# Entry
Amino acid sequence: MKRDEPDNLDLLAAEYVLGTLVGAARSRFKRQLGRDPFTSRRVRAWEDRFALLALHLAPVAPRAAVWEGISRRIGDSGRASGWRQLAAVLAVVAVLGFGWTIWEQLRPREPQATAVVATEAGVTLWRVAIAADGESLQVETTNDVSYPGDRSRELWALPADAAPVSLGLMPPSGRVQLALDDRQRAALALAANVAVSDEPAGGSPTGAPTGAVLYVAPLART
Amino acid sequence: MAARDETVTDEEVAELIVGCARRDRPVFQRLYERTAPRLLGCLIRILRDRALAEDALQDAFVQVWNRAGQFEAGRGSAWGWLIAIARYRAIDLRRSEGRRPAGTGMPLEDIAADEDSVDTSAFGLGERATRMLSHCMGALQPRQRDSIVLAFQGGLSHAEVATEMGEPLGSVKSWIRRGLVALKRCLES
# Structure
């Protein structure tokens, strides 16, 4: 019989399924199987015929690690059941929502307005910023600021058509955060400029500037 | 460590494989739970090593998941399809590992006893497949039948069957070949 005769092919298929076809002959047959639907039908028929012989063997329960390995290897390639899918979506939404909230609280925000307090010669002494929420002022010293120890430098809001309102004392160095009350916020809202005056140590005792107004700086709204 | 010996019908297995083709993970897990113990029984017989057989089982189920879309319910039995994937994996593994049977395996008389203990029709593989086993296998000469069963269940080569049976290689080759011809004739009659 020649190899490609149907009867012989059927026997080759049987020996392939059985496992007795080995080595190069097995590899050759496997290649033919991939190409030829007739061959694959013969193989399929023998696989079914012999299946019962396999089912005669006693079953053995696999250890749990086997399923865990399979599950890991197929990864996320399947869809979960409806409830699990919904739970997964909700979990993602919750994480995103939580993340957004945290980000909103922590992200640096643009100040409402800034002012740069500088000498006439153009040397910047302080940078003043009204926080985004309007609740505080940030004052940062940007250069050496020197004044007598018994004096203070006080910051004022200069609202249009109203008296200056004290915002607090300027730091001699570093940076400070000054909390704003309603009156100060209202004054700042109406002010086009801020000013720094020379005052006794601890600030103006009267609530109005008592010394010379040293610097005036425009408020730049952002 | 035998598993509960529950019969899972071919119809159920076919439905589960079709579910896997839809990428349904819970159905895949169900297929595993229903069929893995039977398949592991086959693989241990071929590989004669539990850990290696479990490796083969794992490979086989990954293939089942990936190839479920190629299963056509009308073209053959679902058990046949599953068993084939698992057996080929074990046979390849056994030969690449250069494994040889560690012992004499299951005595032949036990194989015959095993056949009597299982109600073959319960797997729902169809009348023809059942007839093949009970009638056509029974009609073979004993050595033809034994060598075929040994080769199939053990995933053995002719030479290995000869060693296990303690018979000459030439005789085994001829028993298997004549046995297969007789089986084919019996089935097509």
Remarks:
- The mean pLDDT of chain A is 86.
- Helices of chain A lie at 6-18, 23-35, 37-55, 64-74, 82-106, 182-190.
